[in-house]
Amino acid sequence: MDFYLIQEYFLSAVIIGLAVFTAQSILERRTKRRRLLRFLSALACLFYLLALYEATIGGRIPYEGKHLQTTLFWSYREIWENGNRFLMRQNLENIFAFLPLGVFFEDFFGEKMRWYFVFAAGALLSASIELAQYLFKLGLFEFDDIFHNTLGAMIGYAIAKIIKNLVNLVIKKRNYI
Where are the domains of the chain? Predict the structure, then answer.
């Protein structure tokens, strides 16, 4: 993936998104406007998916030939042997790009959601992006991207689960005091 459109602001957007998710978790427990919060969350998810599409497929120019890298973890060998910082940054960006997906899954499905569904959804969405890049000659199809994107979705899900559990714990403790 090439995140040249959002690379400077992406980490800030992820941090702000997690802060908003935390605030939403607190408000959801204290207010009766759950439908409005769910609608706003669904709208944020739609904007996230559109931004992801634009960064990975929509904003690219086709080129000659199809590019395919089927060796898993080839980027780590390149980083280790040649000190390629660009690939390291790209791997991290791929992880950060899918963090919101895991957060949205926890937000929408809560207790019904299981980690293996997040894993499958992250892998399938990532594989579909990689396949589109390959078929339309918009980028390099590589298993490393699928791995990093799936890892990002799983990390986002874990972070959201931890935040929700902490919010619930704090609210329960305050109610007992």
Answer: 10-176
pLDDT of residue 94: 92
Tokens found for residue 160? 């959201």
Rounded distance, CA 11 to CA 3, Å?
Answer: 12
Task: Determine how β-strand 67-69 pairs with β-strand 140-142.
Answer: parallel
pLDDT digits (tens, 9 = 90+) for 57-106: 887 788 887 688 888 999 999 999 999 999 999 999 899 889 988 888 88
From the list 97, 108, 93, 120, the residue with the least C-alpha distance to 160 is 108
pLDDT in tens, 99-113: 988 888 887 777 777
**Closest of 46, 59, 50, 44 to residue 14, by C-alpha:** 44
Where does residue 119 rank: exposed (0-12), middle (13-18), buried (19+ CB within 10 A)? middle
Beta strands in 2-52 (DSSP E): none
